[in-house]
Amino acid sequence: MLREDFLWGFATAAAQVEGGGEEQELASGKGPSIWDWFCEKPGKILDGAKVNKTCNFIDNYKADLALMKSLGVNSYRFSISWPRIVPKGGKDDPVNEQGVKFYSDVIDECLRLGITPFVTLYHWDLPLELYQRYGGWLNKERAVEDYVRYAKVCFDAYGDRVKHWLTFNEPFVVAIHGHSFGVFAPGHTSNTEPWIVAHTLLVAHATAAKVFHDEIAPKHGGVIGITLNGDWAEPWDQTPENIKAAQDKMDVAVGWFADPVYLGDYPESMKQMLQGRLPEFTAEEKALLKGSSDFYGCNFYTTNMIKAGADDETNGNTQLLFTRPDGSYIGPESALDWLRDVPWGFRKHLNYLYKRYQMPIYITENGYACKGESDKPAEEAIHDTDRVNYYKGYLGAVQDAVNDGVDIRSYYAWSFVDNFEWASGLVPRFGCVRCDYDTFKRTPKDSSKFVGEFFDSHIPKKEASA
Ligand code: PNW
């Protein structure tokens, strides 16, 4: 069994679900984010989808929350759009009261339904203006100030009701996909910028967390942390070089952020690999980072087999494979080339995180996009057997890790509803609920019921108090 107070629900992000179209966006007072701008560049989004027209959560939030409730959730993870709260983003720029009210209403509706809101402050939608003013996360001094002011506006507006906060979602992806691969906004391809961006994100996280710990928690209580991606890295074989390679891969995917936050500095292997290109923390920054995250936030999707000896710093100079030495695949294919269904890696990953960082773990994302689902008509797509199998395996791994002694406090399935999958547009579908993008109609898939039943039978019911 899981904890009695285990939080479970679905996760979404503002940019991926909110938009109901251009007119709505103009009327809302929201400013453009770097993703609005990125979507206008030819060839960047697989199907040419625009981030301002996704699932229309803006108009649908009440029905969406009611549907979640009917599926049995006790929590919901969503993100706040920075340019909806501060359209131009900067510390001296005006606040959009209409935007502040929107999330306030969402939070109130959650609480009315007995759903604990779990709020992400930054899920990749940087106000475009800040990118144009000073390059966004490349400018540590200015980006930190502006982010912290935005965070304060949110803490002040919602801290009385929101007790679970995430500063950043997957800083790795912001740094690498955004500034090295160039496939995510802002689309840079550099071998110096990612390390600078990551440094800014860490300092911004720690500075906002300090404000929360100093000014908000004493008044209202609550916890704050950062959430990190990172797939499990399984050594290709038991040779010393491949065992080391798997550790090097974990160091870049997880340790790059988790080591400074929980252990005090970047991993040694990254210092070796990057030499002068890895920024150094000042003594003040180190002190700020220590204790900045009240828990370990974990997003998890897949596992790779790792071999030594590739020229790719973004993977710690290792080679990522989905095959074993005998040539067999470690899991079936999904709709995305980086994702396969490999449940056993999750248990290992959770044990690794708990042993190394010794923090309670909140699983903040886990999910699957079935191969071929987007080509199927709705009546077929809602019978998402591959996704059910994925959740069966991965939820079993969560229970196994708990039985191993790992302190796991939450689980959020990615995602509630099919949504804007960044550079892949509306093509891959990650939802446990189907979205018809013409009508915005929602239809629950088989997986939504499976996940609900799993938690219904794995979270002990609270004894009715006398
Ligand atoms: C996460 N990769 O992103 C994000 O937090 C979500 O917004 C996203 O929709 C979800 O996972 C599914 O992709 C990732 O290329 C994006 O390895 C890309 C990768 C991993 C995670």
From TrEMBL:
Plays an important role in cellulose degradation. Shows hydrolytic activity against several glycosidic compounds. Gene3D superfamilies: Glycosidases. This is beta-glucosidase. It comes from Apiotrichum porosum. It catalyses: Hydrolysis of terminal, non-reducing beta-D-glucosyl residues with release of beta-D-glucose. Pfam families: Glyco_hydro_1. The keyword Hydrolase applies. One of its GO terms (biological process) is cellulose catabolic process. Belongs to the glycosyl hydrolase 1 family. It is an enzyme of class 3 (hydrolase). Its EC number is 3.2.1.21. GO terms for molecular function: cellobiose glucosidase activity. InterPro entries: GH (IPR017853), Glyco_hydro_1 (IPR001360). Keywords: Carbohydrate metabolism, Cellulose degradation, Glycosidase, Hydrolase, Polysaccharide degradation. Signal peptide: none annotated. The keyword Hydrolase applies. It comes from the Eukaryota.
